[in-house]
Amino acid sequence: AAAAFPAAGATVSLPAWGACPSPSSGASLADSAADRSLSPSGATGLANRAAGSDFGALSLSGSPLSAAADRPLPRLGIRRRVPFPVRLLFERCGGGVGSLQDISWAPFLPQNVVENGWFGKPPSAFEDSFARREVVVAGRVWALSQDQQGCRLVQRALANAQTDAEREVVVSELRNHIKEAVRSPHANFVVQKSIELVRPAALQFMIDEIMQAGPVSCARHKYGCRIVQRLVQHCPAEQVSEIVDALLSEFLVVAPHQYGNYVVQHLLEYAPEEHRVALRQLIEQNVPRLCGDAHGCAILRAALAIGCFEDRKRLAGLLLAQPALLGSMKNKRHGEEALRRLRQVLEEEQA
Length: 351
What we know:
Blueprint: E1 11-13, H1 29-37, H2 42-51, E2 57-59, H3 64-67, H4 86-94, H5 111-116, H6 125-132, H7 141-145, H8 148-160, H9 164-172, H10 178-181, H11 187-197, H12 204-213, H13 215-219, H14 224-234, H15 237-249, H16 251-254, H17 260-270, H18 273-285, H19 287-291, H20 294-305, H21 309-320, H22 323-329, H23 335-350
């Protein structure tokens, strides 16, 4: 039976570290394992072992052992030797230091690493590939694109590709997934990077799938609005005309929206000329509606800052003709900035 835990104030003897038995001195591994089990409690096992010893005395009164008699002590075990790319740790944490002995965390490294100058050796193939994070994305582009880290790997593969053909092979794996990518917090970045780096002719499938999903719903989505903006910015007019026409036909659905207004602002800057003219006409026709909405004020701000002076002057005249609207804009989120742009147009006219 296990011995009782000694009462507070009692003294017990513990063996010195040098006197601890080892397998070579006759102690069995079973005995050592029994000691490590510390049953029924961690402190009880330690007291049992100390009870029959003749080495020095130790008072348990007021010690952590007396306060936590039933707290299990850490199990002892054999530590495995696991290889670790210490070179990478050195390069990332202290690569600018002249030698290993000069850095503060060197004492925590294995002694042989410090003494043998391991850092002076060339990196192994594993360490080199680990540092460069070489990952093959071919065949699993869509799976990686849906992951926070994987989407970065795909974007890096697109950026590091040597030819347009290599990029198009990567982008082709997104086919039939654009509708899902539009609503993905990670895949949308892959699609945006593809639009920026790949030839527009190879992106037609993206436009077709967005038309099937609905350009208006994409423009009103938190992530989809970014993809629509990139397409309008990087693709030729004839390729995105269908998307722009669909957005203009639903102007009052897209413009006052918290995400759609960014698409409308982008159209003012990057849409084909004929679409920009049509868009300005829509803005001028709906000035009262836009002035009464915070996101609409953001569109007015952009319209007063982008475009030729004559277009901006005409819009400024429409705003000045309705003083009540100007008063309501002051209390809107983007209204103050729109009024500042209005003053700049008036100052430009006077100059």
